[in-house]
């Protein structure tokens, strides 16, 4: 891979839950301007990889380096503003009292300072992103009243409102209707055309070739990765979905870490 195109570099990343390794010696690069799918069986460590990259989990070893456009070298605060995360639908507490517009406006908080004082421009951006995902008419509805596909579109609108360089999405197409699936993929492809970096945990092998530029085969370790045209093969599929690697017992617990205890990921401008 052309190093000038690399947006994220994961090197020797190992993560364990208790004494059980979930990821082992993961090495993978993600290219800007591409929509990359991360696929593998249940329990392969796909969501764990994302959470480790986002600094939600502390790895046993390894590094994650983000290459973003930064006016300030070594600014962790800046790198966080360049990453938008869309979690799995089922991991969100949908009962919290908030309107659709409130949710999307949360995407502007990183631009609004400590007091979250938003501007007319912020509100206009939120409205524009709701229009983009086809949810403008639902602005005043409670998020809890929406269908699964509608909720997913709202969370994508929130990510769009952040205006980041990197989008990390955990199963954004799981359980959504066909209309929502087409809307989401159209937007992701448009973002890639704008040289954004997009990582998508995906579960449907039937749509990988149609939807994605690059693919990462993951089953606790990286089996293969690269362009879909050359790497999405029967051999790699078989190796990923039938192989359960024998991983050493780490004897060390993975732990959730607070923002004060985390080792910040590194990046270069």
UniProtKB/TrEMBL annotation:
Keywords: ATP-binding, Nucleotide-binding, Transport. It comes from the Bacteria. This is Metal ABC transporter ATP-binding protein. Residues 253-269 have a biased composition (Basic and acidic residues). Belongs to the ABC transporter superfamily. SUPFAM superfamilies: P-loop containing nucleoside triphosphate hydrolases. Pfam families: ABC_tran (PF00005). Residues 243-269 are annotated as: Disordered. Residues 8-245 form the ABC transporter domain. GO terms for molecular function: ATP binding; ATP hydrolysis activity.
